[in-house]
């Protein structure tokens, strides 16, 4: 198997609202709108994040390792996203995380460190 891209998808009951929330969360407009029911962002080389219109599917989990957890939490709080203070993850040297949910109950984990 030769994997070229990884697609990480969020199922959205309210597609327009979820697209707006994730646009604010990511901090920029989608890179593509390949079809009316899909928005895509390039998050890293060969990693595509999608919001998909899918009213019949339940919540998902999204974990993103980022460079500066404190700066991202501050940025998100300024936009009105309720993000808890980061916590150290037991068993790891420097790994910290903040876990919360988007408006439809999808779990979002922001991680920093190792």
Largest sheet: 4 strands, mixed
- Radius of gyration over C-alpha positions, nearest whole angstrom: 15 Å
CATH superfamily descriptor:
2,3-Dihydroxybiphenyl 1,2-Dioxygenase, domain 1
Tertiary shape: globular
Name of the CATH architecture: Roll
Taken as a percent bin, the fraction of beta residues is 35-45%
Number of strands: 8
Helix content: 10-25%
Order of helices and strands: EHEEEEHEEE
CA(first)-CA(last) distance: 28 Å
As residue ranges, the low-confidence spans are: none
What would the average pLDDT be, to the nearest integer? 93
The assembly state of the depicted protein chains is: single chain
| Backbone structural class | alpha/beta
Could you please say which CATH topology applies here? 2,3-Dihydroxybiphenyl 1,2-Dioxygenase, domain 1
In short:
This protein has about 110 residues and is of the alpha/beta class.
What does this structure look like?
The protein has 2 helices and 8 strands. The protein is an alpha/beta fold. It has one domain: 2,3-Dihydroxybiphenyl 1,2-Dioxygenase, domain 1, CATH 3.10.180. A hairpin with a 7-residue loop joins strand 6 (87-88) and strand 7. The longest helix is centred in the N-terminal third of the chain and has 12 residues, at 15-26. The mean pLDDT is 93.
Keywords:
2 helices; 2,3-Dihydroxybiphenyl 1,2-Dioxygenase, domain 1; 114 residues; alpha/beta; single chain; globular; 4-stranded mixed β-sheet; 39% strand
């Amino acid at each position: 198997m030769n994997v070229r891209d990884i697609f990480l998808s969020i199922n959205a009951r309210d597609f327009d609202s979820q697209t707006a929330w994730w646009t604010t969360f990511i901090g920029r407009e989608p890179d593509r709108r390949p079809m009316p029911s899909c928005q895509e962002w390039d998050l890293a080389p060969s990693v595509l994040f999608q919001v998909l219109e899918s009213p019949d599917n339940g919540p998902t989990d999204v974990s993103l390792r980022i460079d500066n957890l404190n700066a991202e939490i501050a940025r998100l709080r300024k936009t009105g996203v309720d993000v808890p203070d980061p916590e150290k993850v037991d068993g790891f040297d420097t790994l910290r995380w903040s876990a919360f949910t988007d408006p439809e109950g999808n779990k979002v984990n922001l991680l920093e460190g190792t």
